Task: inverse folding
């Protein structure tokens, strides 16, 4: 594209001539003027820069631990390997990594290093090291079971005594040296590899590992951390244009500027200005460089006109922007989209001149119907799909996108290395092979089940209709049809002696008594000893009593008797023989009880069968309840739950039956139970090991020519190559199957491959093999291979059977081998071979015996040795252990006595066929390759696809049209590519984020990209009112001198100077960032008053640990439970309170290992930990260890339980927490002087807690004055609580000095807006939300009253009076709006419409001042109610226009408000002048009539305001002089604590 192409119609010469004229006129005007102004933003970590070499190793560790250690070995000491420039260091890392990674993964590594994605991982080890702590004078050291040393002699000494000390905790992310002996002591090396001292210690310890003396774990530890910080990327920065309706700008001048002019640089993002391509012009006319710069500046200033558009001009902006993007060449379209969306306010005027042709409109319209129908997208919505996986831009940050890219790359490269062509790769990816959560059922047609009723034969149901067609008769929704068929069967398997047996039986009785159409069966699991006496064993007694009554009367009476026996058992008690005897005697007074219950009772049928049925079905721990054979989840067995779930299942299954009847699959004369039991999800046995969803797979995605017959060669291969070598060498047995073409068994793709692993010279190994063969003989889908895992070293004597199996597989046809091996697996054959019988005697007909003998008697044991090594190193089995590998999935090691039989192989086969086997097979058939290779390919592809973490299903999209309305970028031919589809409206926030992301993707990987425009028509408002930058770079930037660039940053250049901006930063969900070091007011940036650059610096203050907590006994969240987070030496660094909404809690932390505990005091007294998931410690340990080592969100689940003696106690009781000393200690730290313990009591009663929020310099100035007015009028000690999230660095630096000067305490609190609560986008509304939504969790439980005072308020009275005001049981008190200034009546919106009817005569209250009784507030769950109501109302953009005020007023009926007397809040806008003299506080409300600026109003209305203002200004000057002007306040001099 040339500079001329914009001016269609101009001659080239004409255009050039114009350019000269323009340049001359400009230069003659000699417009010197200031350079254009900029806003920049950076975000750094709090921790020091981490070495890229270590970050690269963590990237490799995610590929595999092997690659990690290969990388470490290759870089033990790199100090001499590069000249000391950053460039050389970086190139060396990439070069070393390239040896271990594919080209796509190398690009991923570069991106990860640019993102600094693993900096947190490296730093987490640093934090763990600092807890050790490191011994003095060591730059690298060993820790052996808690004792430390940094030399070889010390290590040897410590190893001798190590096992007498407890083993250290090994984290999931730890790096264990391969071949470490698990029995040996654990040696942790803390070091920075790549340095000389690492090399020496590494060699010492690795030699110890080879001798079997140690388990070696490496943790990164940088002895001398760098002085720099890590510059992060992956966040967005927004400059939003503020409304200037009310002037809210501070008039104090900013002292001193900062920022470096280098950020401007030559690299300007906006190349085209008003049709001139300046990049092009600079290259064509280098001599005019300076003049071009001036011209560009002049043009920029004239384009940046922000005059508002008329409504009719805005209507078509979305389509016009799309047209501009689509008109650009494909390669530049994304850059155009990025430029237009990110600088929209200044581009809008020129975009309105664009003409949109009808083809684009029509195609977008057609596509939108499709988007709505298949993807559920409305016009204006956006979506991103990578290989069909949906990436949700609102919740997923760049780190999760990076993970998607990596795992997709792994799969695609795996498929590629299996020689599958690129077009097929995307077909295979779309196969949804994730393990389905379909519920497996067991067969209930078993005599061990005692059926209590039978709907088809029992008299009580005889009036019900019998015909299955009744199912199709219409009824009201939710009505359960009563039909005389056993459609619904409930089986309860229980041990009568367990406590909860009675609850389950009473639910069953309720179903039976209420004539629910449910057939109920019981299975009693009791002792199966032969001569047991029922008079001694309550369980046996119950079974015999049940059988006796069944025989004498009927099963219903027996069931009733069982219920009455259980009704005698006390709550929480256990069944006793006495209970059984009492009921029997009462009902059958003439029978001799001992003859029914005694040891030689004749009523003993089904006693042993019950236990046998339970064992054979493998359904898990008792009690078990099954509906049509499908076991319920554990949590569904709670009696109330059980009732609801069962009724639900009956209704759900009815629709399944209706369909079967409608399609004629089920008729009245069919046996319904047989019909259910013939469904594909019914298996003979449910084996949790097979069904478990946590699965491990072999990596079979490799192609090579290695085999196992050369042991020396085999032992040098890496894991992946070994897997392939074993697969290459495997011979299979199959069923002799016929296929349609009449060829024999070899001509058939078998989608299920079993490898049976065991010692076939031991009975247990042979038994497993025999069961596998028996199953294989029933199925045409299976092929079977064997791997021998000998219990002893292979020798001629110990490997007879194994060698015979190997030889037969190698030399005989699949069918003969199968028959021969079946014989070998029998015990008598093995016994004969042991005695020395000739193996030839067992040959079967058709075998080539001499060929077999040659192979059997061959001298080489290589294959056996390779198999043994493979079992040890890759499968991680001990000698002789058994396992089964099905399509690459490892099931094992199986325990010595664990049952794994023919039924389990059937279950395995049915799972594979159902989830992946059949689908992959049908794809592989299209490739037309020979059969054994095809079966191999199915196995390898299955293993590769199934091993991927379970994600969302891929979206199938065949889009309407992409001719006119989509940006298309084609992939490079022949290479693996990512298929990326984006749907976007170019004038939305999503487009601002998406364009830079897609640009980075195109540079990062080979990509087939389609971006569909999804425009909105008839816009009535400016669609984007902000400038936006997304900080993201595809690789580390290195400057011309070979050093790293300072770091990624957001640059806003050439900004218009007239508007007032506010700067917002959009970070991933789990980051808490704070603004540091800037003198400017980031809430009110006015570029006209700025000298050159506003440099906003942010710091990542915390990574969030979020969680959900529930009480297992009630199933409810334990409201008010407190958790603390810390380390072993400092257990309480952070604390938090559990909310009732979702049991949510959040804790602020940083990379490292942390311990989560319940807070000392009531939390710990009443509750104990029950279980936890998502943590890094074993589920049974009481101390919950959580390692934060990534930038991604971390969410854990914790279950707690009340201690038995505290069952009736509540956490939020009315008693005050006098004994909760932990809190009081934390509060005293806030005092300027240290407090003595005996003063605690009086302090607690007599501190006034005041909460306030402020953002921007003006409101912070008001806030200081408000504090001063409180302190001047209040005698009692005061503690201020400020919301830290939005305070400026200036305020945070000044506040400790003010606290010292005026003698108050303060604390900065912060809370991250939870991700599940509807987000606000406007800063002002977010701050309003914080005023009201989190009152119950912002403050410690010990604070029982808090006063909120707005920043722009002046207090004229002692606030103790307000704190002690009687709220008469309401959780909070607000002042109603004044009604006395009559001329404002037109603005009192609460007097009419919605509010008048909603308030029903109550007053509308103002939120500038309120008092909260936090005890009452928490007790009635007011916070949770407010959040619940907010969640409902906030979805509507027109509701809650004054969020902090409308919400409590809207909830007035659910959460009552006590109205404070009117004099507590006087504000000129609403109250008349006569009431001013009695005012206790004055608020500077905005005046909608006069729109008077706040500062003017303050001086005019409040006499004392200026004096306060001057006093604080004098004090500020004094503080500035005291601190040397060049230095900032050192961190750590704060006299406050942080929550």
Result:
């Amino acid at each position: 594209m040339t500079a001329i192409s914009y001016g269609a119609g101009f001659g080239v010469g004409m255009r050039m001539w114009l350019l000269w004229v323009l340049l001359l006129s400009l230069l003659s005007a000699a417009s010197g003027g200031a350079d254009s102004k900029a806003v920049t933003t950076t975000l750094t970590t709090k921790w020091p820069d981490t070495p890229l070499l270590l970050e690269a190793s963590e990237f490799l560790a995610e590929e595999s631990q092997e690659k990690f250690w290969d990388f470490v070995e290759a870089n033990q000491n790199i100090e001499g390997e590069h000249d000391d420039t950053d460039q050389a260091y970086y190139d060396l890392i990439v070069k070393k990594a390239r040896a271990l990674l594919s080209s796509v993964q190398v690009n991923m590594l570069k991106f990860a290093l640019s993102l600094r994605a693993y900096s947190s991982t490296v730093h987490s080890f640093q934090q763990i090291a600092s807890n050790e702590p490191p011994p003095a004078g060591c730059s690298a050291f060993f820790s052996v079971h808690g004792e430390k040393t940094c030399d070889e002699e010390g290590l040897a000494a410590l190893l001798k005594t190590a096992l007498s000390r407890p083993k250290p905790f090994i984290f999931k992310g730890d790096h264990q040296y391969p071949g470490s002996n698990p029995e040996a002591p654990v040696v942790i090396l803390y070091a920075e590899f790549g340095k000389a001292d690492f090399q020496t210690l590494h060699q010492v310890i690795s030699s110890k590992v080879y001798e079997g003396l140690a388990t070696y774990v490496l943790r990164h530890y940088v002895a001398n951390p760098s002085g720099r910080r890590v510059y992060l990327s992956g966040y967005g920065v927004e400059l939003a244009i503020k409304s200037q309706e009310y002037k809210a700008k501070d008039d104090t001048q900013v002292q001193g500027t900062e920022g470096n002019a280098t950020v401007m640089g030559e690299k300007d993002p906006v190349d085209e200005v008003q049709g001139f391509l300046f990049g092009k012009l600079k290259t064509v006319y280098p001599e005019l460089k300076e003049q071009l710069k001036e011209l560009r500046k002049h043009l920029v200033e004239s384009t940046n006109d922000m005059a508002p558009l008329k409504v009719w001009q805005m209507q078509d902006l979305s389509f016009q922007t799309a047209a501009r993007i689509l008109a650009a060449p494909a390669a530049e379209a994304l850059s155009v989209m990025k430029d237009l969306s990110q600088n929209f306010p200044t581009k809008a005027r020129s975009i309105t001149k664009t003409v949109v042709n009808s083809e684009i409109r029509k195609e977008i319209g057609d596509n939108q119907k499709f988007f709505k129908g298949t993807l559920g997208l409305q016009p204006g919505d956006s979506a991103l799909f990578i290989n069909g996986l949906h990436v949700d831009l609102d919740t997923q940050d760049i780190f999760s996108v990076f993970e998607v890219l990596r795992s997709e790359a792994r799969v695609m490269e795996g498929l590629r290395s299996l020689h599958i062509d690129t077009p097929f790769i995307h077909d295979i990816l779309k196969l949804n092979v994730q393990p389905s959560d379909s519920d497996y059922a067991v067969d209930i047609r078993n005599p061990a089940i005692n059926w209590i009723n039978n709907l088809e034969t029992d008299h009580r149901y005889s009036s019900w209709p019998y015909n299955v067609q009744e199912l199709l008769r219409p009824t009201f929704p939710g009505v359960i049809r009563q039909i005389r068929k056993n459609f619904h069967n409930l089986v309860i398997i229980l041990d009568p002696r367990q406590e909860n047996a009675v609850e389950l039986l009473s639910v069953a009785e309720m179903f039976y008594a209420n004539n629910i159409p449910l057939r109920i069966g019981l299975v009693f699991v009791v002792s199966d000893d032969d001569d047991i006496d029922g008079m001694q064993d309550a369980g046996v007694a119950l079974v015999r009593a049940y059988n006796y009554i069944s025989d004498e009367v009927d099963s219903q009476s027996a069931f009733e008797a069982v219920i009455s026996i259980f009704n005698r058992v006390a709550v929480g008690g256990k069944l006793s023989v006495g209970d059984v005897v009492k009921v029997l005697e009462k009902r059958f007074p003439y029978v001799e009880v001992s003859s029914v219950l005694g040891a030689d009772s004749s009523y003993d049928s089904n006693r042993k069968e019950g236990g046998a049925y339970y064992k054979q079905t493998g359904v898990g721990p008792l009690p078990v309840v099954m509906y049509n054979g499908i076991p319920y989840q554990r949590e569904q067995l709670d009696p109330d739950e059980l009732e609801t779930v069962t009724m639900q299942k009956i209704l759900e299954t009815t629709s399944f039956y209706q369909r079967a009847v409608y399609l004629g699959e089920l008729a009245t004369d069919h046996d319904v139970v047989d019909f259910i039991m013939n469904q594909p999800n019914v298996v003979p046995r449910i084996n949790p090991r097979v069904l478990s969803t946590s699965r491990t797979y072999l990596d079979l995605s490799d192609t090579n020519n290695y085999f196992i017959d050369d042991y020396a060669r085999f032992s040098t291969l890496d894991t992946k190559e070994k897997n392939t070598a074993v697969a290459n060498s495997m011979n299979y047995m199959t069923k002799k199957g016929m296929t349609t073409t009449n060829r024999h068994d070899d001509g058939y793709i078998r989608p299920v491959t079993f490898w049976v692993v065991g010692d076939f010279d031991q009975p247990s190994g042979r038994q497993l093999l025999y069961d596998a063969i028996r199953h294989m003989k029933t199925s045409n889908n299976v092929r079977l291979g064997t791997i021998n895992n000998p219990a002893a070293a292979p020798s001629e004597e110990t490997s007879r059977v194994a060698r015979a199996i190997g030889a037969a597989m190698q030399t005989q046809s699949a069918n003969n081998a199968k028959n021969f091996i079946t014989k070998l697996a029998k015990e008598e054959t093995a016994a004969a071979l042991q005695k020395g019988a000739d193996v030839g005697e067992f040959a079967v007909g058709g075998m080539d015996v001499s060929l077999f003998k040659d192979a059997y008697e061959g001298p080489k044991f290589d294959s056996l040795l390779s198999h043994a090594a493979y079992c040890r190193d890759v499968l991680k089995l001990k000698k002789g252990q058994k396992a089964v590998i099905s399509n690459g999935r490892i099931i094992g090691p199986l325990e010595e006595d664990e049952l794994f039989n023919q039924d389990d192989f059937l279950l395995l086969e049915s799972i594979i066929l159902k989830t992946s086997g059949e689908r992959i097979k049908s794809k592989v058939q299209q490739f037309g390759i020979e059969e054994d290779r095809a079966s191999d390919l199915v196995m390898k592809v299955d293993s590769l696809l199934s091993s991927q973490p379970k994600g969302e299903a891929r979206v199938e999209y065949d889009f309407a049209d992409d001719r006119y309305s989509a940006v298309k970028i084609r992939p490079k031919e022949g290479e693996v590519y990512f298929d990326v589809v984006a749907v976007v409206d170019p004038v939305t926030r999503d487009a601002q984020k998406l364009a830079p992301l897609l640009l980075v993707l195109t540079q990062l990987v080979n990509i087939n990209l389609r971006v569909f425009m999804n425009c909105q028509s008839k816009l009535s408002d400016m669609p984007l009112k902000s400038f936006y930058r997304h900080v993201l770079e595809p690789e580390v930037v290195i400057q011309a001198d070979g050093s790293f660039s300072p770091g990624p940053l957001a640059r806003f250049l050439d900004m218009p100077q007239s508007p007032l901006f506010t700067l917002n930063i959009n970070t991933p969900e789990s980051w808490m960032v704070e603004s540091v070091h800037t003198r400017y007011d980031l809430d009110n940036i006015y570029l006209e008053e700025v000298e050159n650059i506003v440099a906003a610096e942010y710091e990542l203050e915390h990574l969030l640990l979020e969680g959900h907590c529930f009480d297992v006994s009630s199933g409810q969240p334990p409201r008010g439970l407190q958790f603390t987070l810390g380390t072993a030496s400092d257990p309480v660094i952070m604390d938090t309170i559990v909310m009732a909404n979702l049991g949510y809690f959040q804790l602020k932390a940083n990379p490292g290992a942390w311990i989560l505990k319940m807070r000392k005091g009531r939390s710990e007294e009443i509750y104990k930990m029950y279980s936890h998931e998502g943590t890094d410690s074993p589920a049974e340990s009481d101390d919950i260890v959580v390692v934060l080592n990534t930038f991604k969100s971390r969410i854990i689940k914790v279950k707690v339980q009340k201690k038995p003696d505290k069952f009736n106690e509540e956490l939020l009781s009315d008693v005050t927490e006098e004994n909760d000393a932990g809190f009081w200690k934390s509060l005293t730290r806030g005092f300027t002087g240290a407090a003595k313990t005996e003063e605690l009591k009086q302090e607690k009663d007599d501190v006034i807690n005041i909460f306030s929020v402020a953002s921007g310099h003006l409101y912070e100035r008001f806030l200081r004055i408000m504090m001063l007015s409180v302190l001047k009028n209040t005698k009692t000690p005061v503690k201020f609580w400020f919301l830290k999230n939005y305070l400026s660095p200036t305020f945070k630096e000044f506040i400790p000095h003010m606290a010292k000067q005026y003698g108050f305490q303060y604390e900065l609190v912060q809370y991250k807006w939870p991700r599940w609560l509807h987000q606000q986008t406007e800063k002002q509304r977010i701050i309003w939300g914080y005023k009201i939504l989190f009152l119950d969790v912002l403050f410690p439980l010990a604070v029982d009253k808090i006063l909120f005072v707005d920043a722009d308020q002046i207090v004229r009275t002692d606030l103790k009076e307000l704190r002690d005001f009687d709220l008469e049981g309401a959780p909070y008190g607000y002042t109603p709006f004044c009604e006395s200034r009559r001329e404002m009546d037109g603005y009192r919106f609460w007097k009419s419409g919605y509010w008048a009817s909603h308030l029903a005569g109550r007053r509308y209250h103002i939120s500038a001042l309120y008092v909260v009784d936090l005890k009452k507030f928490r007790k009635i769950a007011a916070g949770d109610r407010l959040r619940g109501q907010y969640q409902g109302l906030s979805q509507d953009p027109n509701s809650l226009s004054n969020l902090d005020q409308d919400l409590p007023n809207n909830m007035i009926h659910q959460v009552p408000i006590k109205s404070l007397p009117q004099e507590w809040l006087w504000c000129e806008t609403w109250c008349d002048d006569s009431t001013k003299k009695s005012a206790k506080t004055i608020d500077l409300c905005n005046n909608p009539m006069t729109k008077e600026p706040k500062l003017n109003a303050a001086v005019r209305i409040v006499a004392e305001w200026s004096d306060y203002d001057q006093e604080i200004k004098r004090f500020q000057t004094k503080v500035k002089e005291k601190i040397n002007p060049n230095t900032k306040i050192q961190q750590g001099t704060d006299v406050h604590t942080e929550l």
Notes: The mean pLDDT is 82. The longest strand covers residues 1093-1111. The chain is about 35% helix and 15% strand.
